[in-house]
Amino acid sequence: MLDMEQAAKLAQEFLDREVSHERMAFTLVEGERAQAGGKFYFDCQSVAYLRSGDPSDMAVGTGYVCVDGETGQCRLMGAVESAKLNLF
Fold it and tell me: Roughly how many angstroms between the first and final C-alpha of the chain, as a whole number?
């Protein structure tokens, strides 16, 4: 089973590899993480928004990064699916 720090590293690598693109880089939101049912959940947002606070830099429609604690597999959840978990 992964620990929180290992899962966070995998989540950020996933964002860098699969989600970020030249117009918008994503990162984990500091302090917004949880573990439930063998999975780890991390809130994420655009780097530009976290730096500026300007709503025009915000990524909209994305949810948490979910990391399976056994396999390390990562996926980006949708906003509605994430909101139903009510983790943060």
Answer: 23
For 36-73, the pLDDT digits (tens) are 999 999 999 999 999 999 999 999 989 999 999 999 99
Backbone angles phi, psi at 54, to 5 degrees: -80, 120
Strand partners, 39: 36, 68
Amino acid identity, residue 31?
G
Q: Which residue in 41, 33, 38, 36 sits closest to 65, CA to CA?
A: 41
How far, in Å, CA of 44 to CA of 65, rounded? Answer: 7
User: 56: which residues sit within 8 A by CB, 6+ positions away?
Assistant: none
